[in-house]
What we know:
This protein is an alpha/beta fold. It has six helices and five strands, in the order αβαβααβααββ. It has two domains: 8-43; 51-182, Beta-carbonic Anhydrase, Chain A (3-Layer(aba) Sandwich), CATH 3.40.1050. 51% of the residues lie in helices and 15% in strands.
Amino acid sequence: MCNHKRSCGDVAAARADMGRRDFIRLATLGAGAALFMSVAPKVRAGGHAKALMLSCMDYRLVDDLVTFMNGKGLKDDYDHVVLAGASLGVVSDKFADWHKTFWEHLDVAIKLHHVEEVVVIDHRDCGAYKLALGEDAVSTPAKETEAHTRTLADFARQVREHHPDLKVEAYLMSLNGHTEAVAA
């Protein structure tokens, strides 16, 4: 029974008309999405990225990391994994639960994006190094450099054990963005 001012036939017609309008909207959205995907292939999974960058989570260096990678000619050509302490997060027993996560990320980057190298960037005045190794281990610039150099070399060795074909580049960044290569 229809208790509206319109007749029941009018209500049914309005519902049918609304259905057609909704269908046309949906079809238009679908066509727009298909058009977008045809002109934006970077949105799709897969493809190629030259490198995987591992960096620390420190908020003070986010812009400097991007600037550094762009300066290496890798703009939009790398995956990025973030762990507190960067290389330390992969090799220190203090962060043992993170080790598997990093290796799985690297494996996915190789499978999906065919990465050819790992760029690892540790940084000075890193809180994770102080937590894991103790304040004294990084209390002077010389001790800090030694701790990072040792950890970066261990990280590079492990990458080569897991993936002998990958190139590894290791760096130590200052809080002002100055970056120095570290033998790894």
